[in-house]
Design brief:
The structure is a homodimer.
Chain A (H helix, E strand, L loop, with lengths): L11 H16 L6 H7 L4 H4 L6 H24 L5 H18 L1 H9 L9 H26 L8 H13 L1 H4 L8 H15 L26
Helix pairs in contact in A: 1-2, 1-6, 4-5, 4-6, 4-7, 5-6, 5-7, 5-8, 5-10
The first copy, chain A, binds a DNA duplex (30 and 30 nucleotides) through α3.
Chain lengths: ~220, ~220
Amino acid sequence: MDTSLTDRDTDAGLRIRSAAVLLFARQGYAATSIRDLARAVNLTNAGIYHHVSSKEALLADLMRAGHRGLIDATARLLDGVQQPSDRLALLIASLTAIHARSPLTTRVMDGELRSLTPGSTAHDEIIALRDEYEDHWRRALADGAGQGVFRVADQKLSRLALMSMCTGTSEWYRPDGDSSLEQVCAEFVAIGLAAVRAPARPTASADLSLLPDFPWEPPDA
Amino acid sequence: MDTSLTDRDTDAGLRIRSAAVLLFARQGYAATSIRDLARAVNLTNAGIYHHVSSKEALLADLMRAGHRGLIDATARLLDGVQQPSDRLALLIASLTAIHARSPLTTRVMDGELRSLTPGSTAHDEIIALRDEYEDHWRRALADGAGQGVFRVADQKLSRLALMSMCTGTSEWYRPDGDSSLEQVCAEFVAIGLAAVRAPARPTASADLSLLPDFPWEPPDA
DNA sequence: GGGGGCCTACCGAACGTTCGGTTGCGTTGA
DNA sequence: TCAACGCAACCGAACGTTCGGTAGGCCCCC
């Protein structure tokens, strides 16, 4: 008897997104053809267009949903947290964790902006979402510097350095590798707080269960 | 009267490389056609093939020369430098500086490995060159940890974090931006040494004139 | 006069996308 | 109860365009 949750992966739309994020992350958007995608989900190239209006719209959908998930999760995580060093620690841990847990989606989010037609609605929208996310970092660093708890030569410089460190995780992290996700996050938080000369780090660690689990992120590497 | 250095940019090979690195960095290798490249250097697509054996060979050439330049410059910079913290500082400053000064070439080097046919001679060669470069980092961190001057939870983790910080520079640095190249390098060195808990940083700063100037790197942004 | 440098013209293949058609399931009306 | 209908899901074939690459010839300079 079948006790499982019905037809989980019969939803073609989800399977297409899943294959798309895998191929876009591995080969890049431009090097991935609709036929590649169709083969991966056992459809013909024409069949894809029943579920997707265009190749670029598919990319835009993935990027939009990814950014919204990140922004929402970040807002939930930071909710009520006051100390700038706590906020920065949460930002570092969560950005690192999402890049480790959803490396394919984040690689597409971080690297395929240039594949959206410049000036298109989708392109502008993704830029706005990215800015909205980065504002969390800007505010945390500005608050910390304003309160004198961070001593930092250049807020923008520090932010870019730390964000690069976190986003780079999607390029090398493997769940079965040498370090656990918790170790990576802890180490990166330590580096980040040292970078802004924050005094000994305190209090709560990030509740990673608040992070989004993108339903289309393939489970494998 | 023309007092300039003769026919600098009449060398078609160089102009092609210059345009290629610009287009590959901006649009990606897969999204750049031979015809795009030809238009950029005022040739026809067929004319390109008089100077280049294939599109992929052109990419491989750029990546190979870029990596060799980086490796050679790093060896020169580190020559005779003993202290692990000095070596690490030089590695951080030089990797940051080359990504700031040659953002297009480094973006291609860092991001287009996947565009080389897997298993091809060129692909394997570039991987070997990248490993050869990273060994400089591995040795510096191992030496520092071995001598007890670095206190670091995980050498690989620290290396990846710091290298991501440095390579990220090519994505945002602008010569006319808020911070000078020297400021960026100094700040990143400070962050890096704090990351490995090195005691107060000492001695020589990097002689950036030892870094390679890729002749094909376009001067503009 | 011969070769480097570049052209016009073209090839076969692959591209994103569209179109007309078929299948099969769920709902409806008599 | 069952024919009739609607519609989501998909396919095979083709559209026009662009792709990486090639063949052969023209021109200019040594």
